[in-house]
From TrEMBL:
It comes from Cyclobacterium amurskyense. One of its GO terms (cellular component) is cell envelope. Pfam families: Hepar_II_III_C (PF07940). SUPFAM superfamilies: Chondroitin AC/alginate lyase (SSF48230). This is Heparinase II/III family protein.
């Protein structure tokens, strides 16, 4: 019998992780800055040592040559674009548009800046000059949505640094003035309050602090006091975001935000190393390097992501270079997406907006012993998950991901106990994933508040009725109820158990969900339930886009010419039901073609002495 960890005990564990003794080294002061900051440019990601290695690899390494050609291809496309112009209205609904502008500018600078750095083409320098002037003449970088400022500040700082004084003096002066007035100073409000992102635990911390550190290094000679206090605050603040990777590297906000947040922590580490000779401990933060396995394993054999936590199912462009930073630090070739990088530029297409920086650290890679990618992996922490991958004959086609967590976490959903399942190239059990923030915002929908009765949970993508979990009495999950991973076994037949009791506080006395990979082509889902006096109905749910035929004791799913059997092992006499969700219940819901929810509805009176088991097996050909 598994001993279930109480929510209180786990909350204490999580708090201990957040307050762990490991802290980034933070000696930053004005004297330290003046003594230790490298004087010569470039000094952001690039410096004399990384440049030497990059230029050597550009002559000898086909991988680096291919990446650079892809950057040149993208730089040529930038030259064909108009300059960015913007007049930002004082309207919260414009925020997503401005963030897109900042990201586009960071992309342009990485493409043009790296090509200029390598080739010193005066035409590229001229276009960089025009881009910087245009961005610096924006009336504001939109500090109300500070992600916009973070990405813009990083871009301007890199443009100054990689051109190493070759821009016109008037442009350099304008850029540094803008970094101070539109970048750094808005991060120091006149009321003296510290912005929430500084010490936040999510991707905002990583992105915004990266921008502030880059901007501060760029203006350090002009205003060392402002630079020193800003860098010191950012390094201190980053502890809070990095603590979220403990203990195993599972990023609480899911795969897409892992790629985003971790990319900016990687570029911060690279900038600090190049400018000061040390990353002050970022790379050694507990769980951080281990998160490369999370980044690698959350992409399934189908190349789709395990898309929980507001994540799309298609990987973002920046993921490859996030992983290649870990390759450069570990010497593990598993983290290099060689197959993609070795494609032709037109096959690669548009590349990461931090590809210029990524090229530099990918060029630092020296292969050491590469470990085996784990076929059964767990990540604990605030939003725990497990992943089982294939072995033997189904190595390329088997993929299972299951999770705990709670709705109230950043980008969280009421999806504790949910799972996805792929076999033979087909995603049989799906997560509905994310939906457009912009569409919801323009409709006036309150997406971001997370109280039990808040609007967020009306959406099928956010509530438990859109996920492959269980529901009780047709009620929502408890938004703050933290489902924890309480047991995990690896090997050829891995198992994982989540305590779902807090998820159903007041609805059930206890609940635990076990996932068992009992063969190379199947998964067993086993729920141990104990009801309370108020419990009336337990509904087992599975989300799929497959065609479904109900049969005695279960169902047969068909998709892409392949089949999957669903066996109702515990209650074979109870019929399954199918709920069509195409169209979805609400106009604002994400519309997913052919979406269905398979339900197994178990009335509480069936359970003897209020206890029972629901057991289902999914198996393929």
């Amino acid at each position: 019998m598994v001993t279930l960890r109480s929510e209180l005990a786990y909350a204490q564990l999580s708090q201990n992780n957040a307050n762990q003794s490991y802290q980034l080294n933070n000696p930053i002061s004005v004297p330290y800055l003046k003594k230790n900051l490298q004087k010569a440019q470039p000094r952001l990601v690039l410096n004399q040592a990384t440049e030497k290695r990059l230029r050597e690899k550009l002559q000898t390494d086909p991988l680096i040559q291919h990446i650079y050609q892809a950057i040149k291809y993208n730089a040529a496309s930038v030259l064909a674009l108009d300059l960015i112009t913007v007049d930002i209205p004082d309207n919260p609904r414009s925020q997503q548009n401005q963030l897109g502008i900042s990201r586009d500018f960071l992309y342009r600078i990485n493409m043009l800046g790296m090509v200029y750095f390598v080739e010193k083409n005066p035409d590229i320098l001229q276009r960089l000059n025009e881009e910087v002037i245009a961005a610096c003449n924006f009336p504001t970088w939109n500090p109300k949505h500070f992600l916009d400022v973070g990405e813009m500040s990083l871009a301007i700082a890199l443009a100054l640094d990689w051109t190493a004084g070759k821009l016109p003096k008037s442009t350099i002066s304008l850029a540094k003035k803008s970094l101070i007035e539109k970048g750094i100073m808005p991060s120091w409000p006149e009321n003296g309050e510290t912005p929430r992102w500084v010490n936040g635990t999510n991707n905002w911390n990583q992105v915004c602090n990266a921008g502030m550190i880059a901007a501060s290094i760029a203006i350090a000679e002009e205003n060392p006091e402002l630079a020193a206090k800003t860098i010191k605050r950012s390094i201190e603040g980053m502890n809070h975001a990095l603590a979220a990777y403990a203990p195993d590297g599972a990023y609480p906000e899911g795969a897409t935000y892992w790629g985003y947040g971790t990319m900016f922590s990687a570029v911060t580490a690279a900038m600090l190393e190049s400018a000061f000779g040390t990353d002050f401990g970022i790379g050694d933060y507990p769980g951080f390097k281990e998160s490369a396995n999370f980044g690698l394993l959350t992409t399934a054999p189908s190349k789709l992501l395990y898309n929980y936590a507001d994540s799309p199912d298609v990987p973002e462009l920046y993921t490859d270079f996030t992983l290649s930073w870990f390759a450069s630090k570990t010497g593990d070739r598993n983290y290099l997406n060689t197959k993609r990088f070795m494609q032709t530029p037109d096959e690669i297409g548009k590349i990461s907006r931090l590809a210029g920086a990524g090229l530099v650290w990918t060029a630092q890679f020296e292969e050491k012993e590469s470990g085996l990618v784990q076929s059964a992996w767990k990540g604990e922490g605030a939003n725990p998950i497990v992943i089982f991958t294939g072995q033997g004959e189904n190595k390329e086609g088997y993929y299972f991901g299951g999770k705990g967590g709670r709705g109230s976490i950043s980008h969280g959903n009421m999806d504790a106990g949910s799972f996805i399942f792929e076999l033979n190239g087909v995603r049989w059990v799906i997560d509905p994933g994310n939906q457009s923030y912009g569409v919801l915002s323009r409709a006036g929908f309150d997406l971001w508040n997370r109280c039990q009765e808040c609007d967020r949970w009306k959406l099928l993508t956010k509530n438990n009725f859109g996920h492959s979990t269980i529901s009780v009495d047709n009620k929502r999950h408890i938004v703050d109820g933290l489902a924890t991973l309480v047991d995990f076994k690896g090997g050829e037949k891995p198992e994982a158990t989540f305590d779902l009791t807090p998820t159903f506080a007041g609805q059930l006395k206890s609940a635990a969900r076990k996932f068992i990979k009992d063969s190379p082509r199947s998964i067993v889902i086993e729920d141990q339930i104990e009801t309370n006096d108020a419990t009336k109905l337990i509904t087992w749910q599975l989300m799929t886009q497959a065609d479904i035929k109900l049969v005695d004791g279960g169902a047969v799913l068909t998709q892409d010419g392949k089949t999957l059997k669903l066996e109702n092992l515990s209650h074979p006499d109870f019929n399954l039901s199918i709920v069509s969700l195409d169209p979805a219940p609400l106009q604002l819901d994400k519309q997913i073609e052919n979406l269905k929810r398979i339900e197994l509805r178990i009335p509480s009176w069936v359970l003897e002495e209020n206890k029972g088991e629901i057991k289902v097996r999914l198996s393929g050909e």
